[in-house]
Design a protein that fits this description.
alpha/beta; 35% helix; Gfo/Idh/MocA-like_OxRdtase_N (chains A, B, C, D); oxidoreductase (chains A, B, C, D); Dihydrodipicolinate Reductase, domain 2; homotetramer; Gfo/Idh/MocA family oxidoreductase (chains A, B, C, D); NAD(P)-bd_dom_sf (chains A, B, C, D); Rossmann fold
Chain lengths: 391, 391, 391, 391
């Protein structure tokens, strides 16, 4: 077991596992973080992927020095201090636990795992490792959108007063076309769930992050609009949800509604958050992620209104490192900020946030929504046949 | 019983009952409709209210020729052909049924009634009267917002394809201040319900109107954030909801979410509707009621995007009567259009829409939401005490 | 000569001359003003138009008691106290001067007149009449948009500090189609000028109104993109401008740019104003006339941003009379407010604003823009032929 | 003289001169371009700056292998094929001409030079070098905003028809505070001009780029609102413009207005472009650079409206390389795209665009605006003293 604490002053060695969409995004962050932020020295040492040719091409493109095809080989290497897991969800638990036990700091993409049991095991491993000074973090990258970090600050400062309710949605449309093909993402075995795990997880994490609150009760619903799609071998069953709806009760007394969809035609990546407090409110939309809208209800009525804050001032979270005001940053820098905070946490020995436990919390909420949806406790107004006749 | 059919060619005589907010709005519509639309001749004959001085002042201000203090006196008058009921909800049933039985055409403000039993009696009375050529209509005035009438046309024309889901909200903030006083609107006895009956009714009617669909199942939740407010005699209990959430299953297979609130700080009159179909989508917000946003997903991907249609062209519903393009109209003309359609229906003998039966349908849905909310079938994650400690 | 001051307590008698677009809009204001505002008693006595059948139909539709076909007949009538001139611009001077000399209060639509000489004569007549207690006003109705009245208040209160520059535009597109027909509006003889007099006049009046300032120098340019259009007798020459550009120097040191066009495809009625001060700024667009955007640059940088004020609170100019917050009003009520202020001025004996002198001031500025445009003092970069080759 | 053509297959060697704001932005582009685009192999070999310690720190941070303190030393190095000039404008001519003569491909930041004479010499040098296969390019990076590249495509495809007029503005507010300090940017000696050269240059380049047109005549105005600012040695004279206004005649017959300001409070980086054609129009704002608004005036009137195209589809320029739809990119990638196109041009031997001649063209237009402004040909309405009294 390597011990980062005892490491000499050599740069931290980083290994990344997986090089698809998330691997590309994380690599970008590793490649650029030190050009904008003061972070401890590190090296992009090793990229791991099953296909030797593929991983070599990716390493060349994304800036990794070496490659490997078996993630297990990483665990024995004394020159690797950090493991960044961008592999599919069903592999998270095994890799993360092994890495933590080998004394590596671990960053893992969301969702924490595909099953609650795995997530619990991971949280336990993280807790044990933390006692040894080994850090871990789950990649809810939207916590590092500057506008959302600012939103959290404004809420914590009391600028919206007591939050009454939150209206959260995450709307996309890449499955709106019913002829879009079957994929592993649409199969419960491989994906765990559909829009719920993929994007409701982000929306729910934001609720927890922004309010620093906990969920006490949930009520939910899932729906699949297109139940069969063309696969490699003809039409196949889609076994995950296209859309989900939930209401969450929070310990503070606030209520959150969550609505997510992959068939919301015209919405491309619309994580929208509306936070209504008794002294003010906040609005956010990921498609315009450099903006936060804020109304201060303590201002004179004559001058009240949602103000569009272009989050690009040195006074805003993370922004001092970037460009002059009004020169907007892109989606990918949520990861740059995440890596920055992760590296800072490692160097200061402060456990980073969000923790695996935070990831487990989200997982439990998602699970409860699935249970609630399965219980199907709605009030029936019309028998289906009657309704169809009526329509 | 008067018989409008047998009426000579004299103008239709109109009586209006009630002269508060809705009375002011309806009066404005009666006063102006003939200046913009070709409607059968009518006269603003009679305004009815309990306070003699008050009703006389209102009649002078709003353009009514005479006044009366007892609505029952209207029923015997042979020169009154139309009764427009703007009295409080608990009076609707008695007045409307009496008027219909007296052979008067009846327009009644929403909600149809405070109880389901009353609403059912009203629908039965309307059906009986209709067989005699006596017309009736419920005032879901937002069906007459030109942008929403256009939305319905576009949906009917197939421009959004099959609707998958609808996201409806009606957000206001006039109760955000917890020191705002108690009123009859916050008492279940007098108001029936809170945000649910007052504004969710509009949102739900729009779902039915836009899709021409029926609701088969509902699941809902109600919440009161401020449970006691200062009244005439000290602090009093608020017995209606401040906010409500529901999901509705539609006979077509579509799903609608509905969220309403009177404590959504910064939202003044935000009825927002988002309709997601497989070929396109529509967005609307009542605070910008002259606009409809439409995305056509059959256009080349390179050129797709929500287009802001400024609904002010002669080609748009109701608009030929008004001003040149881009000269926006106000909220009050939803009533002008409503009266126009009501008068046209009377003159052509075509039953107007929405009918009392449509109003009853909405009432049933609201009732089902209350039942579902009372059943409280959520999944419990944390015991309250644990949660509070954790928070 | 009638003397309004000595009038008994009978209602003021109003005559309106002209019943086209502006006549329809003014009638609407007269018909409704007393239902919303406390104004002195008046009667819509007389509508004047050259075509007997046409004016009778209009009077019936718009609420005028009598009709006449010769405007001169109005001058002798002792029961007419107010003349509202909605006739074409070339008739303004003759009618207005006659009416003022007959002791009638006069409201005249903008532009004041088609020529500077006429405008000067009108201003002189207004001044003379004013000394006799006879009031006059020019109908720059956008001074009565509540959001713009609020803008003026905020500027006067110092909320934007010293204004440095203003960016004003009025963009429409009803002439974008080059096959749109010739009309009197496109002929210099009848219309005076094109976009300049029609819509730049509004933009310039707003600059003067908002800042309470005067123009010292102008530089301008006019252009006609479609120089021939189909008329009754084949193709005819368009002799007015389609678009105009100007910069104005103000006595305060501020600078205003003005850009107007009738060929700005997609812009329907977009009077947009941007006022930049050293402590704040304001934005307005007539297509969303219930909104004013305001940034307060003295707020902490972290919280700054243009706030969208939905101008619908009782605290806002004119709004207490209307509907609850967030229930927007339409374009036509700029006239309702104008009539209200005009009637109030008459009853209190205070000269109303904007005066004929204010109208003359705008006329002088428009004239100076035409002169500057004719002087054509630009710097030549390329000979036309060279340029065309290069392109 | 090195000859890139004869270079062996070794990667292209890049030297960058200057490491302030633009150096940081260009470095970012060099560091990342190969991770997203297929470009010829290159190396970030050398960073040049006058301060040895400063340049070393910058090189380490931004990814450059070596450093140098004298830009002249670059010219003799056979391993340097490309020189990227991010030094101040007054140094551009000398460095660029030397580099071109040494056979290096040259990318130079805008503006091309501080004087017209220098710009002309640079264009001549570029022309001579081009004949030798040595490429050059000026960094009008906004040509590489995907939304603006799309706008150009749509215009070229005829989607807006014949362009009648363009409304261009570039508004910032970093000088709105009159106590902001004096700097080299506010001194004509060092900066050439103020807002004109700095940001009007971008706006004018866009007009030329989007339309593929040339300017034939200009009329302009410059103004300095704050004429003295606190410097190192007390109050100093500001000798450049804070704001500028111009109208441009284009060879095609179109007219463009340009307005730029550094004192437009609340505007942070608002390059806004409005292109009005007879078949459609386009709107763009750099503060939301992932969006393009387009109205198609050939669509049915009922469905027309500006559509917000979220420029993030694989069908859009440059976007296939980036993230899934709706995941927005930042301002800095205008440079990434610029470097990509520059490298591609070098590898294919096609002269890149915009050329030094394009930069010279913009410079000539800026010069003509200054001349026109100096000629001061406005029409005087009021003597200043009169005006002040009147105000």
């Amino acid at each position: 077991m390597t011990s980062p604490e005892s490491a000499t002053n050599r740069p931290l060695g980083v290994a990344m596992i997986g090089y698809a969409f998330m691997g590309k995004a994380h690599s970008n962050a590793w490649r650029n973080v030190a050009s904008f932020f003061d972070v401890p020295a590190f090296e992009q040492k090793l990229l791991v992927g099953r296909d030797a040719a593929g991983v070599e091409a990716a390493a060349a493109k994304y800036g990794w020095a070496e490659t490997a095809t078996d993630w297990r080989s990483v665990m024995d290497r004394g020159d690797i201090d950090i493991v960044d897991i961008c592999a599919p969800g069903w592999m998270h638990a095994e890799i993360a636990i092994a890495a933590l036990q080998a004394g590596k700091h671990v960053l893992v993409e969301k969702p924490l795992a595909n099953t609650l049991a795995e997530a619990e095991a991971m949280a336990a491993a993280a807790q044990a490792a933390r006692a040894q000074g080994v850090q871990s973090m789950i990649g809810f990258n939207y916590r590092r959108v500057p506008a959302l970090a600012l939103a959290r600050e404004l809420i914590a400062d009391g600028r919206v007063g007591t939050v009454r309710h939150i209206r959260a949605a995450y709307l996309q449309d890449w499955l709106a076309d019913e002829t879009a093909p079957m994929s592993w993402r649409l199969n419960k075995e491989t994906a765990g769930s559909g829009a719920l795990g993929d994007i409701a997880s982000h929306a729910i994490d934001q609720v927890l992050f922004l309010l620093g609150d906990r969920v006490t009760e949930v009520s939910g619903r899932l729906h699949t609009f297109t139940t069969r799609r063309p696969g490699a071998a003809g039409m196949e069953d889609v076994t995950v949800d296209d859309a989900a709806w939930a209401t969450l009760s929070l310990a503070s007394g606030a209520i959150a509604s969550v609505e997510v969809s992959r068939v919301a035609t015209g919405r491309k990546n619309a994580l929208s958050l509306e936070i209504y407090g008794d002294k003010g409110s906040l609005l956010f939309d990921l498609e315009n992620l450099n903006e936060l809208h804020f109304v201060d209800a303590t201002a004179p009525a004559r001058e009240q209104g949602f103000r569009r804050i272009l989050v690009g001032e040195p006074e805003h979270p993370y922004l001092e490192a970037w460009w002059p005001q009004g020169h907007i940053i892109g989606w990918e820098h949520t990861f740059t900020h995440e890596i920055r905070d992760f590296l800072t946490a490692i160097s200061t020995g402060t456990p980073p946030s969000p923790s695996f436990e935070d990831g487990l919390e989200v997982q439990r909420i998602l699970n409860a929504i699935e249970e609630s949806a399965a219980a199907k406790s709605s009030t029936i107004l019309l028998a289906r046949t009657t309704a169809s006749e009526g329509a």
